[in-house]
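Entry 14. Ran structure prediction on the chain below.
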Amino acid sequence: MHRKVNCIPSRCMKEFFHSTEHLVRVAILLLLGIGAFLLIRRAVVPADFGKYGHFRPAAMDDVSARPITFAGREVCEACHSDHAEVKAKGKHAGLGCEACHGPLARHAEDPASIVPKLPDTAVLCARCHEANSAKPKGFPQVVTAEHSAGLPCNTCHQPHSPQIDKEKIGGEKIGGE
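Output, structure tokens:
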């Protein structure tokens, strides 16, 4: 197509917009999309988001309004010093009590009436110790289906200090231990 060099301005504009009409439609759709995005973002994102970086300051108020569910290791050890001593000498020394026993703030407040249920060791121990190639080589791992013949872990191991308890199994080793 060959353009005329000397054209009337209104006619040149008409020709220009006639040939670029499809581009104008795309530009209008793009602007409408950006406008819709900004309106939705304004409605969905809290006003204080980003005030201190990628963080919503009111989140701390929301979290602090929730009831306390964890008692903390020190509270557990104050009453259960016998278990704490055994655990301090074992492989699980760095592990908090509530990592396995769950949140126990209510038990700590009223130990006589709220007695926590002991965890199912067959399920609990497998969460960390089931064999997985992504875990470090030195980390104790087992294939639970083969390791214990279906028995719970505390049949042979004392969870607070998990080396094999030979007294419990009469000196025999189970499942390739």
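The longest strand covers residues 161-164. Will compare against last week's run tomorrow.
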